[in-house]
Amino acid sequence: MAIAIAILLRILYIGSRELWYDEVLSLLLSTSRKIAYHSPAATPVLLQKYTSLLSLPTESSLHDFFLTIKNLLRSLVGGEPHPPLFFLAQHFWLRLWGNSEVAVRSLNAIISIVAIGSAYGLGKEILGHRGGLILAALLGISPFYLFHSLNMRMYAPLVLWTILSAWSLLHLINWTNDQKSQKSQKSQKYHIFWNGLLILSVACGLLTFYLYAYWIISLAVLAIYLDRKNWLKHGLRLGLGVILTIPWMLWGTRQQLRNADIDRFGKAPTIDSAWLHHLQDFCQTIGTDLLIGDWTTSISNASSAIAGCLVIALFIYFSISIWRRGERTNLIIALILGILPLLLSLSIDIITNKFTLGFGWGRTMIIILPGCLLLITLWLEKVVTKRWLIPGVTGLLLVYLTISMGDFSWRHRQVFHTVNQLISSGGNQPTLIAMNSKAWGNVLRLAYYIPPISPVMLLAEHPADLATSLAKVLQKDADKYSQIIWLDSQDPVWSKLPTQLEVEQEKAKVEKILLSHFHLKKSQRLIGTMSLDQFTANLYIKSPEK
After folding, report:
1. Alpha carbon distance 267, 271 (integer Å)
2. Is 358 part of any domain?
3. In angstroms, rounded to a whole number, what is the distance separating the alpha carbons of residues 473 and 16?
4. Going by C-beta distance under 8 Å and a sequence separation of 6 or more, which residues neighbour residue 258?
5. How confident is the model at residue 259 (pLDDT cuts 50, 70, 90)?
6. What distance in Å separates the CA atoms of residue 348 and residue 31, rounded to the nearest whole number?
7. Cβ distance 215 to 205 under 8 Å?
8. pLDDT tens track for 36-45
9. Would you say 370 and 222 are in contact if contact means Cβ atoms under 8 Å apart?
10. What was the pLDDT predicted at 306?
11. Cα 78 to Cα 30: distance, rounded to the nearest angstrom
């Protein structure tokens, strides 16, 4: 029932939210039009110019098709820090279904359902049929995975490659140790299939997300732990998966490294603050991935860290209980798959004095999710008594279901739909949008949600420059616009003013300039699911006397 509900939730919620900042960037990359994107200048530009970039280019020949693929790959190596597989898959999906919200998210929704089925296989390989069902149900209802299942980013397929590689490796290890299976012709054929699945999933994982390398190391440790005598065979399988990625690594990854902005992951000023930051990242990541999901974008870092401490305490209790029950091999398997990648990431961060672990609200370490859920499943299967097993599983699934449904039911994101409604309320008259952000994620979301039939011009500037540019535009072309929407971002990406006093001073300048030509008709706070979605929309219409 929980698995069925998990699938139903993906259908119900797939189009319930606007594309968020990174999703629209994924769309731009997948259409291969990123190289045609130019940041708005100090003069208004027709918004429709950006709308066209979010659709596939027109092709009339096979040459045009290959040129489109070439531009997509060039876009990736020119500034995107991720490998190409996800964007290529989305590109061909766009060719089939278009670029609507439901269309662009449906591929990941389908992939996540396949991942739920694969989780059953992984759980069954270790704990049998019931263990497989529990693991699949936990993954399907997981707040963090549900969110990423309905998100046009690479994290849903990353979990699939994680599960498939672990499942196939464990199956091969068990097959090697099962002498009866080796005598079966049918098993020999399956052996070839599982070898191919392991090699392919390793290659696909590494071509989906670079930090999947931590997972490959964890798989190597798992192979050595469970089947040390055949470590060379398992190493060759993993190595072949890595070798398949070499063409991209030599061409694409090298160029991406030259363009990488590694400094954004920061350095702490003192040793004490660095250790505190690392500890906070560790706790926040495990708390987000295993308990609070995307709610982490709306609560404080301290609350996320407290959630992580709770999960860590439960995991310590689970581990001790499982160890005492004699399930030590399975416990170590779960810890290798669930905790080791996290520790590897933490260690690299400490050595390099970077903070990649906590970047992106826990999503960079989504590879730990199957292993951690396996630990929970192991505790439910082997420690909880038969009398309390069904109530225990039901209670945990209800907690996850409540968090997941609450996330999508109570946390809406309709910011740019609202901007479009404000424009429409004026009868689609010539409109200027003045926005204190040049961030391409905000520019492209405006272009995506405001129909190209609307005569809308966009003036997007850094917060410190908006007032000056707006004054020049209105001095020359004030009569050109029937209405102006001043879209004031509360979190201008990459261009925040240093103090709140400066923020208020610039707002006062913009307001004074607008009131000299227009009068304020409506002001509305626009609130989404994260700080990037916080805006104030001020609708100004032309003053009759002017």
Report:
1. 10
2. yes
3. 37
4. none
5. confident
6. 34
7. yes
8. 999 998 999 9
9. no
10. 96
11. 14
Q: Coil, helix or strand for 493?
A: coil
pTM passes above 0.85: yes
Q: Does residue 404 share a domain with residue 293?
A: yes
Closest CA to 368 of 411, 435, 308, 301: 308
Q: Are 32 and 68 in contact (CB under 8 A)?
A: yes
In this predicted structure, what is the pLDDT of residue 429? Answer: 86
Q: For residue range 458-482, list pLDDT tens digits in order.
A: 999 999 999 999 999 999 988 899 9
* Cα–Cα dist 69/533, whole Å: 32
**Last residue in a domain, options 352, 379, 410:** 410
Provide the token pair at 269: 């000023």
CA of 496: how far to CAs of 4, 331, 490, in Å?
45, 47, 9
Tokens for 197, please give them. 């699945």
406 shares its domain with 420:
no
At residue 445 the predicted structure's pLDDT band, cuts being 50, 70 and 90, is: very high
CA–CA gap between residue 525 and residue 390 (Å, rounded) = 45
Same domain, 372 and 514: no
Report how far residue 72's alpha carbon sits from residue 27's, in angstroms, rounded to the nearest whole number.
11
Could you tell me the two tokens for 261? 């902005």
Determine phi and psi for 37, rounding to 5 degrees: -80, 135
The yes-or-no verdict on residue 179 having pLDDT over 60 is: no
Does the residue 130 lie in any domain? Answer: yes
Q: Give 367-419 as a DSSP string.
A: GGHHHHHHHHHHHHHHTS-HHHHHHHHHHHHHHHHHHHHHHHHH----HHHHH
Residues 424 and 290 in one domain: no
Whether residue 421 sits in one domain with residue 385: no
- 118 and 185 share a domain? yes
Q: Which of 410, 433, 462 is the last residue of a domain?
A: 410
The residue among 212, 104, 106, 198 whose CA lies nearest residue 155 is 212
Q: State whether 98 and 241 are in the same domain.
A: yes
Nearest Cα neighbor of 486 from 429, 535, 425, 545 is 535
Q: How confident is the model at residue 185 (pLDDT cuts 50, 70, 90)?
A: low
Sheet holding 456-460, edge to edge: 45-46, 456-460, 431-435, 483-489, 535-542, 518-526
Hey, what's the torsion of the CAs at 267, 268, 272, 277, to 10 degrees?
A: -90
pLDDT digits (tens, 9 = 90+) for 69-97: 999 999 999 878 899 999 999 999 999 99
Give yes or no for a contact between 163 and 371, defined as CB atoms under 8 angstroms apart.
no
357 & 422 share domain:
no
Total domains in the chain come to 2
pLDDT of residue 186: 58
Kindly state whether residue 27 falls inside one of the protein's structural domains: no
Amino acid in position 96: L
Domain membership of residue 66 (yes or no) is no
pLDDT number for residue 260: 72
Per-residue pLDDT for 114 more than 80? Answer: yes
Range of the domain at 328: 2-14+72-260+274-410
Q: At what angle do helices 21-30 and 101-141 cross, to 10 degrees?
A: 120
